[in-house]
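Handout, page 2. Input:
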Amino acid sequence: MDQQTPPADHASPRRADMASGGTRPRTQLAGIGSYLPARIVTNEELAQRVDTSDAWIRERTGIRQRHLAAPHETCAFMATEAARAALADAGVDAAEVDGIIVATATPDQAFPAAAVRVQAALGAGGFGFDLSAACSGFIYALSVADGMMRAGQARCMLVIGSEVYSRIMNWEDRGTCVLFGDGAGAVLLRAGHGTGAAGEPGILSTHLHAQGDLGDILYVDGAVGQPDKPGHLVMKGNEVFRHAVGKLAGAVTEALEANGLAASDVDWLVPHQANLRIIDAIGKRLSLPAERVVVTVDRHANTSAASIPLALSEAYRDGRVKRGDLVLMEALGGGLTWGSALVRL
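Output:
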């Protein structure tokens, strides 16, 4: 599924609209924020409890440490902190927010949604709901929010990715427990207008995909509806890797082609932070130099739906990603689900 503001030469009704001086809705990223748990666990520390080593983890994933949540650092707690940071960055009061979407596979409760817990903590109004698309969750949530805002259903929304994967890990399985970490990232979206040109700020397009017959290569074995199962993450790593590079490369090419752009137009690739080898492969497919690819997997590990907003927040805070930059985001997760988003900050 694609959602986009098409380039100027696509649709004749739009050309007529532009010729008459009209504008079209465009969702703009007004604020960016994040939260990471205080506790950092290095590979060396992990090797004291799991049959692994720093060298084994680094060579296969690029990960050297991860943040793990304390008991009070729940999905909703971290989402709230990331949201507060995004609101502060935008200079917006929580009372202006009329919609919250939390992308998560690790909510605090089956219901109510983490999003309404965030709403209550912030003192916001409007609506709130959670969205589950595993590691693709943030891209999916961004697409849903963009559609709602362009349809006029909201004018100010928070989109948050928040995960506590440490609580669904089998800590005896070295093939999975070394890969994940906890954290949250958020963006504040404001309704804006423009002619639809790629040089204007806002979400240019989003592109979503899923292939359900691949659901058994990455899943959690149990949930509220299956209390007899352990509820641990299960992954066939080689299979996921095999599908990831091709599907992600296709999604990023799709985003560029939909907007009449080339890889050389992209200022930053902000990929899902799962594995450094996958990130490098996508960068090479796009012929992007390493200095234009944001990498946090070495310090954050895989934070699932939180990984893209966490990476975006870090690069934005340290000054690499600036207002006006063209940012390409992509992710793949359990489902399989995958997608991309092209955003002008």
